[in-house]
Amino acid sequence: MSCSRFKPIQPYTPATKPLISDQRGKPPVRDHLIRRLSAACKECQRRRTKCSSENPCLECTKRGSICVFDMSSDKRRKSHASKIEAELRHYQRFLNDFLRAIQDSSDDDVRNIINTVRAGSSTSEIQSEVNSVLMRNYCSRPTL
Predict the structure, then answer these.
(1) Confidence (pLDDT) at 139
(2) Could you list the residue range(s) of the whole structural domain that residue 132 is in?
(3) Are residues 41 and 54 in the same domain?
């Protein structure tokens, strides 16, 4: 049995989608219609004022403020929830592999994993150590 079937843990990278005006295939909204954002710019949020969602918005233009929109801060959007779900699935897979590596490995390999964790290593460094242990375990299995 070859080691090519082993899939190492991949670092978490959030998926990004291009912004499309309408996901259902309808033509884009006309420019003369007022487009509402569900999140106001940072300055309007801070001042608790109505944001016109233009860039720069009317309030920021009036006050001479810098107008910055942060779409990722809107936690009501489905995209935010799907990003959180993807991140949770990633860490759940990582935890499952981490536990499997500890359960199925030799004491020396477990010590190496623990030392990597205790050294304050980043998640990607810990993933790398777990992947190498899992790969050694997978390749050292006797073939039937």
Answers:
(1) 83
(2) 74-143
(3) yes
